[in-house]
Amino acid sequence: MPEATDLRRLTPRATEIAAEARTLLEESGPDALTMRALAHRLGIKAPSLYKHFPDKQAVEVELIAQMLTESGEACEEAERRAPGSLPALTDAYRAYALAHPHLYRLATERPLPRHALPEGLEDRAAAPLVRACGGDEDLARAAWAFAHGMVILEIHGRFPDGADLAGAWRTGAEALRS
Fold first, then answer.
1. Residue 129: pLDDT band by 50, 70, 90 thresholds?
2. In the predicted model, is pLDDT for residue 1 greater than 90?
């Protein structure tokens, strides 16, 4: 399987910039991730960033690649622990998204920049789900839509207090498996 994202493809300084961008994003959300704010945190002038990333979108693409890599790895680990278990995958997906809500939002609330992502990354991230769905890509897409819908609603606080979210996740995953 190809290496999904590889920070070694970045220069050491670009790696440092991406790490600081991730910290800024995780702390303050997607709206706070600006080239000016990033430069300020790094103690440099914003134009200096353009030596390493051509624009803000390139920084965002790197962060999206990190999210796809890490969430894919979380699902691969769940698959190793419980082969073929859709509930195990949805649990891993949910846990990752809730641990990184701003990164998750950056990666999922706008069109995916497929053309700029490392080749094979999207397929690698989806592979555990496709395997858990017996190779049925339509079922895998439906399962992803369920998981994404549930987690984004949870991130945005759209469920009422006291809602049994674990039960809703379990019911949804079981319905998709039947």
1. very high
2. no
Gap between the Cα atoms of 12 and 69, Å rounded = 20
Residue 75 maps to which CATH number?
1.10.357.10
Side chain identity, residue 17: I
For 82-164, where are the alpha helices, taking DSSP H only?
Answer: 86-99, 101-108, 121-132, 137-155
In the chain, the number of structural domains is 1
Residue 50 has which token pair? Answer: 């353009």
Span 16-25, pLDDT tens digits:
999 999 999 9
173-178's contacts with Cβ under 8 Å and 24+ in sequence apart are: 173/86, 173/87, 173/90, 173/143, 173/146, 174/87, 176/86, 176/133, 176/139, 176/142, 176/143, 176/146, 177/86, 177/87
